[in-house]
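Sequence design from tokenized structure. All designs in this work follow the same two-part layout: the structure record, then the generated sequence. An example of the structure record is given first.
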């Protein structure tokens, strides 16, 4: 019998037991979009938050997106894409450094973030403002879930690990898949893990299925 795969994410997969890791509460701070040359977007949740605003105020401002998935979502939303990172916030430093320090950026973000790219760029003299558009909190689902010791666990963000570990431990017999190195850094010391080939849910699922097949 195949091990159960648990996916801790906001997305779903038919190959896994889907556990929503976070509940999201949206905020609507005052923003004068006309002050900025470019936007910085690092999640699809930001786009949902932007639905609260008059689209005409920002839709013509090109956005630097953290990943292909975020860029595709913003393009579908009707926005223009300035550039795309490799899935990690820290990768955006390279993109931002291609522009003049006179450029005005607006980073639309979550309350808690893992990357320090804004500080890195600000320390170098780049002009980046930040606005918090949503707050993520551990969902009841992830706090209440109990998994078998030999399950395969997929973590798609640092917060998904933090929330899971509030009421659970990761058993040594469990297989662990993480979406990237930033997420892996939140795992307890001594836990073995595998990193997906790309920063996508599909890539994580593909790796988890391979690991399950090998352990048969």
């Amino acid at each position: 019998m195949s091990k159960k795969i648990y996916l801790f994410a906001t997305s779903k997969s038919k190959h896994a037991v889907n556990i929503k890791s976070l509940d999201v509460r949206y905020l609507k701070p005052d923003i004068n979009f006309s002050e900025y040359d470019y936007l910085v977007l690092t999640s699809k949740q930001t786009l949902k938050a932007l639905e609260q605003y008059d689209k005409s105020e920002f839709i013509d401002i090109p956005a630097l997106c953290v990943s292909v998935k975020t860029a595709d979502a913003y393009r579908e939303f009707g926005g223009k894409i300035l550039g795309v990172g490799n899935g990690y916030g820290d990768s955006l430093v390279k993109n931002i450094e291609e522009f003049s320090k006179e450029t005005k950026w607006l980073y639309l973000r979550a309350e808690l973030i893992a990357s320090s790219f804004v500080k890195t760029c600000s320390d170098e003299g780049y002009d980046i403002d930040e606005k918090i558009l949503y707050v993520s909190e551990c969902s009841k689902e992830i706090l209440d879930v109990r998994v078998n010791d030999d399950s395969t666990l997929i973590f798609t963000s640092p917060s998904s690990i933090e929330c899971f570990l509030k009421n659970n431990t990761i058993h040594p017999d469990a297989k662990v898949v993480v979406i990237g190195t930033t997420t892996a850094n939140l795992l307890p010391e001594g836990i073995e893990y595998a990193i997906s080939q790309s920063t996508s849910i599909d890539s994580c699922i593909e790796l988890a299925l391979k690991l399950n097949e090998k352990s048969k």
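The chain has two domains: 5-21+139-214, 24-137. We note this feature because it recurs in several other targets discussed in the main text.
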